[in-house]
């Protein structure tokens, strides 16, 4: 199950991608329409801004806006920024690999084999979908 942070991040990105004029949108508006706590949304949008997906404008007429084309925003990258590793076990992770303390031999571990298949299939779906694919 994904966290609310990831779910809300995807909802906020989708909302911003659907803006026709791509002008900044205030956090309060996104929060109200998507039914997300403003404080929680602030922290999510800051992560996405720091990752280079969003820009922010302060003051009157300010808010958040996409600085990348939605077709160039990979859902795999968004997932990793907000959720962390795609793999469900550290021993099955590409980017966050760790050996399991309780596993005598990873090469014959049934749990690792299964989790590797799940990782590969999940990664395939995430990599084959951009923000444009899910927003429109």
Please provide a written account of the structure.
By secondary structure, this protein is mainly alpha-helical. It folds into 2 domains: 4-66, Arc Repressor Mutant, subunit A; 72-135, no CATH class. It is built from 6 helices and 2 strands; from the N terminus they run αααββααα. It has helices at residues 4-17, 27-34, 38-50, 75-82, 110-127, 131-135, and strands at residues 54-57, 63-66. Strands 1-2 form a two-stranded antiparallel ribbon. Strand 1 and strand 2 form a beta hairpin. Helix 1 (4-17) packs across helix 3 (38-50) and helix 4 (75-82) packs across helix 5. The mean pLDDT is 95.
Query: How many domains make up the coordinates?
Result: 2
Mean pLDDT: 95
Estimate percent helicity: 40-55%
- Which strand-content bin applies to the residues? 5-15%
Give Rg in angstroms: 17 Å
Elements, N to C (H/E): HHHEEHHH
Structure annotation, total helices = 6
Arrangement of strands in the largest sheet: 1-2
Oligomeric description of these chains: single chain
Topology:
Layout: H1 4-17, H2 27-34, H3 38-50, E1 54-57, E2 63-66, H4 75-82, H5 110-127, H6 131-135
Antiparallel strand pairs: 1-2
Helix pairs in contact: 1-3, 4-5
Summarize the structure.
With 136 residues, the chain is mainly alpha-helical. The protein has six helices and two strands, in the order αααββααα. It has two domains: 63 residues, Arc Repressor Mutant, subunit A (Orthogonal Bundle); 64 residues, no CATH class.
């Amino acid at each position: 199950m994904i966290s609310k942070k990831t779910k809300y991040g995807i909802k906020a990105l989708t909302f911003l991608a659907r803006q026709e004029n791509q002008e900044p949108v205030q956090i309060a508006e996104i929060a109200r329409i998507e039914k997300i706590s403003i404080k929680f949304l602030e922290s999510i949008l800051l992560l996405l801004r720091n990752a280079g997906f969003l820009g922010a404008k302060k003051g009157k007429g300010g808010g958040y806006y996409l600085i990348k084309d939605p077709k160039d925003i990979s859902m795999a990258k968004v997932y990793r920024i907000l959720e962390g590793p795609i793999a469900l076990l550290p021993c099955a992770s590409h980017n966050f690999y760790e050996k399991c303390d309780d596993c005598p031999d990873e090469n014959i571990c049934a749990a690792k084999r299964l989790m590797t298949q799940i990782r590969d299939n999940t990664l395939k779906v995430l990599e084959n979908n951009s923000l444009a694919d899910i927003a429109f």
